[in-house]
Amino acid sequence: MIGKISGRIDYRGADHVLIDVRGVGYVVYVSDRVMASLPGNGEAVALYTDLLVREDILQLFGFTTLVEKEWHRLLTSVQGIGAKASLSILGALGAEGVSKAIALGDWNALAKAKGVGPKTAQRVANELKDKAPAVMAMGGGDVAVPDDDTVIEPDTSARAPRKVTPPQNPAQAEALSALVNLGYAPGDAAGAVMEVITPEMSTGDVIRAALKLLAPKG
């Protein structure tokens, strides 16, 4: 399994890039959002990858964060969602947008992606809702390719710069864990947290606000 590619961009296609890794070129398919974030030809790049293996084809798909890669893996586990549809969803919403849409059961947001119909979007939201908390909790440690909003650190293994993304509010994962420990279903807990959380909120604030949403309406 090829889990990460670090090298330099040789050229760009419509939906893929060729990354030169010490003289070996890897074709990596990416979403429109990832493509727009990549540096120019000859520049250093690092992407997490997922390898699709079939009898007649081997394809690499690239992602700027582990959360994005994990959502791709989960999306393609749903009937009717192939790699192309997954990249379309991630390209339209981004990893955070997918997390929010699925946590809240917002299939309409998923259906905005090209090639994803309402029935398929509803299936995605229903099947993956309870898996959202674990993916959302991964977000704090993501590493991705450079842009203007990140800190550059050296990648000595491939002599390529990479970025550390600004961490999400750590209260997100802590509040999710607390609510699940209180007996709430993971999907319900994730939806409530995503609806109330803001960057400056403490864990206690998030939990209290989420509990108000989760309280029985009477």
UniProtKB/TrEMBL annotation:
What subcellular compartments does it reside in?
A: Cytoplasm
Q: Give the source's domain of life in one word.
A: Bacteria
Residues in domain Helix-hairpin-helix DNA-binding motif class? Answer: 73-92, 108-127
Please identify the protein, giving its name as recorded.
Holliday junction branch migration complex subunit RuvA
Q: Where is this region: Domain I?
A: 1-64
- Keyword Cytoplasm tagged: yes
The UniProt function text for this chain reads: The RuvA-RuvB-RuvC complex processes Holliday junction (HJ) DNA during genetic recombination and DNA repair, while the RuvA-RuvB complex plays an important role in the rescue of blocked DNA replication forks via replication fork reversal (RFR). RuvA specifically binds to HJ cruciform DNA, conferring on it an open structure. The RuvB hexamer acts as an ATP-dependent pump, pulling dsDNA into and through the RuvAB complex. HJ branch migration allows RuvC to scan DNA until it finds its consensus sequence, where it cleaves and resolves the cruciform DNA.
Q: Does the keyword section mention DNA damage? A: yes
* NCBIfam families in the record: ruvA
Similarity comment text for this entry: Belongs to the RuvA family.
Q: Which InterPro entries match?
A: DNA_helicase_Holl-junc_RuvA_I (IPR013849), Hlx-hairpin-Hlx_DNA-bd_motif (IPR003583), NA-bd_OB-fold (IPR012340), RuvA (IPR000085), RuvA_2-like (IPR010994), RuvA_C (IPR011114), RuvA_C_sf (IPR036267)
Q: What is its main location?
A: cytoplasm
Gene encoding this polypeptide?
A: ruvA
Q: Which organism is it from?
A: Loktanella gaetbuli
Assembly behavior:
Homotetramer. Forms an RuvA(8)-RuvB(12)-Holliday junction (HJ) complex. HJ DNA is sandwiched between 2 RuvA tetramers; dsDNA enters through RuvA and exits via RuvB. An RuvB hexamer assembles on each DNA strand where it exits the tetramer. Each RuvB hexamer is contacted by two RuvA subunits (via domain III) on 2 adjacent RuvB subunits; this complex drives branch migration. In the full resolvosome a probable DNA-RuvA(4)-RuvB(12)-RuvC(2) complex forms which resolves the HJ.
Region annotation Domain III: residue ranges? 156-218
Domain comment quoted from the record: Has three domains with a flexible linker between the domains II and III and assumes an 'L' shape. Domain III is highly mobile and contacts RuvB.
Matching entries from Gene3D superfamilies are given as: 5' to 3' exonuclease, C-terminal subdomain, DNA helicase RuvA subunit, C-terminal domain, Nucleic acid-binding proteins
Record key words, sorted: Cytoplasm, DNA damage, DNA recombination, DNA repair, DNA-binding
Q: Which Pfam families match?
A: HHH_5, RuvA_C, RuvA_N
